[in-house]
Amino acid sequence: MAFISGLTKTPNEAEAVLIAIGANLPYAGQAARETCQRVVAALRDVPGLRVEAVSAWYESAPVPPSGQPPYINGVVRGVASLGPEALLEALQTIETRFGRERSMPNAARTLDLDLITYGSLCQNDSHLTLPHPRAHERAFVLLPLQEVAPEWVHPSSGKTLADLLPDVADQEIRRIQE
Predict the structure, then answer these.
(1) Which position among 109, 134, 163, 170 bears the catalytic label?
(2) Catalytic pick from 33, 77, 114, 163?
(3) Is the pLDDT of residue 152 over 80?
(4) For the chain, N or C: smaller number of CB within 10 Å?
């Protein structure tokens, strides 16, 4: 598969992207759900990213189980005219702005933004793996993803959401009522 640079692309080359949002710690006096809602606004301000749809919010138990507070999760569907590395950098900048500290894997956090897919790009390097290597194993990604991209097909496995959802049916998750 061809490598796509991190430089800005023309609008005709824009790619559909899926971004998972998660948080389980308060930040700046606001609950995790409020942080997630504010992050959607921050994503709308990223040059070269157009947010098209936002899922409902879900509450889920931490994966792997850890005794941490529950997570608030959602998925944003958008179109990016910047390359995947540049988009990842923008997501990490937003995470930092919202108090994200990278202490240890699976630690509780004020914000987690994961680039789930960038078009049908498949890449695996030390900086960015696409599609996200564990998204297909997590109900907190697949259920909100189903709301914003019901016809989504996993780029590397070719499996549909209907194929993947039964494998995560035993995970604790509930949709939060607005």
Answers:
(1) 109
(2) 114
(3) yes
(4) C
Q: Is 125 an annotated catalytic residue?
A: no
Phi/psi-derived region of residue 92, left when phi > 0, alpha when psi is between -120 and 50, beta in every other case? alpha
CA gap 116, 139 in Å, rounded: 13
Please report the beta strands in the chain, taking only residues with DSSP state E, as ranges in sequence order. Answer: 15-23, 49-54, 58-60, 71-80, 112-118, 123-124, 129-130, 173-175
AA letter at 102: R
Nearest Cα to Cα of residue 169 among 143, 133, 134: 143
**Active-site annotation holds for 163:** no
Closest to 75 measured CA to CA, from 51, 54, 49: 54
Tens-digit pLDDT profile for residues 164-173:
999 999 998 9
Token readout for 94 is: 């937003």
